């Protein structure tokens, strides 16, 4: 084990995504294109939900919170990757590293809680439609959103403070494109096995259990939908639930592989690809999945575009 590093420069070096690539410029351009699609898609979805009065329902309010989390997530990681490439400097301060760890984990926990609450919302709306308006009041919706953000902040604050207290050895090169807690622990001179077990337990609490609750909710929903006598209502329920299940698989799939398998069992390249999917691809696909199969969102978009065309014609 190397000696501990007490140098005057506490900065870390992010090795990034394109260290071994023969065409890094093309890959950076592709990443920036995907970033723009993600920012545009999520921003439009949020604006449509906030502007369209017929979209002021619990389901769409929670969906807007999910898109807001996606916007924050992709904005805290991907711009740094591009900036490092164009500037040639891949360093990040210890404080900056802690901020990235906090934001990534906070948003991950908040998304897991929010997706679970969204599944409960769909279960209540389809399986108990008479009780739904009584229970899902605007105040309850705000409490759901606030509890998701609060859970992310409280849990992640403890994880970040504990992870950052470990001292590092001579090497300060992080084999990642952003500061991630497991990648940072690999630089530690101390025994981190106990904390890695804590991360595994956190994965069970915030990944496995919510995923089980979500699957249970949708099993009950599908059993209810099977007995519906209205084809239009059945098709609408199935479309909404299938879209949500697609989003759930995008969020939980990579995270469960990363945080619920032993660190040594995943090659670094595979781990990087999983994080790219989690940080870049999922926030891009989420608004597309939620809007392309949703007639109400598409209708709201057509209405806004129609207004713009009328305004231009009058000018």
List keywords for this structure.
mainly alpha; 315 residues; single chain; three-stranded mixed sheet; globular
Description of the structure:
This protein has a three-stranded mixed β-sheet with strand order 2-1-3. The protein starts with 11 loop residues before the first strand and ends with a helix. It has helices spanning 24-51, 58-87, 94-127, 132-135, 138-164, 181-185, 193-226, 231-259, 268-292, 295-314; strands at residues 12-14, 91-92, 173-174. The model is unreliable at 1-9 (pLDDT under 50). Helix content is 75%, strand content 2%. It is globular and about 65 Å long. It has 315 residues and is mostly helical. The protein contains ten helices and three strands.
Compile the SSE list and pairings.
Elements: E1 12-14, H1 24-51, H2 58-87, E2 91-92, H3 94-127, H4 132-135, H5 138-164, E3 173-174, H6 181-185, H7 193-226, H8 231-259, H9 268-292, H10 295-314
Parallel strand pairs: 1-3
Antiparallel strand pairs: 1-2
Helix pairs in contact: 1-2, 1-9, 2-3, 2-5, 2-9, 3-5, 3-7, 3-8, 7-8, 8-9
């Amino acid at each position: 084990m190397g000696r501990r590093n007490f140098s005057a420069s506490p900065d870390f070096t992010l090795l990034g995504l394109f260290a071994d690539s023969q065409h890094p410029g093309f890959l950076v351009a592709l990443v920036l294109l995907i970033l723009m699609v993600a920012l545009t898609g999520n921003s439009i979805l949020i604006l449509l939900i906030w502007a369209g009065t017929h979209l002021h329902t619990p389901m769409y309010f929670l969906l807007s919170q999910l898109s807001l989390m996606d916007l924050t997530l992709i904005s805290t990681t991907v711009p740094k990757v591009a900036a490092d490439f164009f500037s040639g400097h891949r360093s990040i301060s210890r404080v900056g590293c802690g901020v990235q760890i906090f934001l990534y984990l906070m948003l991950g926990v908040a998304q897991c809680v929010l997706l679970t609450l969204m599944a409960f919302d769909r279960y209540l709306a389809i399986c108990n439609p008479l009780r739904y308006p009584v229970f899902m009041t605007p105040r309850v919706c705000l409490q759901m959103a606030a509890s998701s953000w609060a859970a992310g902040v409280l849990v992640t604050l403890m994880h970040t403070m504990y992870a950052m207290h470990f001292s590092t050895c001579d090497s300060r090169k992080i084999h990642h494109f952003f500061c991630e807690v497991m990648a940072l622990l690999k630089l530690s001179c101390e025994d981190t096995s106990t904390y890695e077990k804590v991360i595994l337990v956190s994965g069970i609490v915030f990944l496995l259990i919510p995923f089980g609750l979500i699957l249970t909710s949708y099993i009950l929903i599908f059993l209810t939908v099977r007995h519906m006598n209205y084809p239009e209502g059945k098709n609408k329920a199935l479309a909404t639930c299938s879209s949500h299940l697609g989003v759930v698989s995008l969020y939980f799939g990579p995270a469960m592989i990363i945080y619920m398998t032993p660190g040594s069992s995943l090659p670094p390249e595979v781990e990087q690809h999983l994080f790219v999917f989690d940080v870049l691809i999922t926030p891009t696909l989420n608004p597309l999945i939620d809007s392309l199969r949703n007639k109400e969102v598409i209708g709201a978009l057509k209405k806004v575009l129609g207004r713009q065309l009328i305004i231009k014609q009058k000018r």
